[in-house]
Fold this sequence. Notes:
Elements: H1 3-13, H2 17-24, H3 28-39, H4 42-59, H5 69-86, H6 107-121, H7 125-136, H8 141-148, H9 152-170, H10 173-185
Amino acid sequence: MxxxxxxxxxxxxxxxxxxxxxxxxxxxxxxxxxxxVYVQNExxxxxxxxxxxxxxxxxxxxxxxxxxFTTWMTRIVINCSKTYITKGQHTELTEPQAFDLxxxxxxxxxxxxLDLWQALANLNEKYKTVLLLRFYQDYxxxxxxEIMASPEGTVKTNIRRGLQRLxxxxxxxxxxxxxxxxxxxx
Length: 186
């Protein structure tokens, strides 16, 4: 986090609403996507994002280390998403193309992405969360450990187990290639 961002956090902690919005603006898309992956519905993801913003604004004075604002916000979105799901408030599914996850218009590619997306959505929360943070949000293992408040070893284990469960669910050649390439990156 830069000095400017830390300064914005301090201003926001002192009640400056514009500073708070300036902090959230570059994170908005990333946080929305995180919520969307949990609920798979555009309107629900927006509701979760808005709820997370309110919680963050109310809790901002309690944030002790401004350099962890992004990590803190991500954790709030994850917690709001889990709460939303637990309360059974989610509704109809919206396909992931709604926010440009798909890169190629090929029909086969779309089916592969939808299969992967559905398999990911069906994973246990701890595996889904680490895989989303690692591969859709490009967080490092260390950053994920901070967000999840877990040891790095646990994060690595959950990534590996999550990838194994994806492989079991999909049992297709394209997922084997993808998982293999991901495992080589770690």
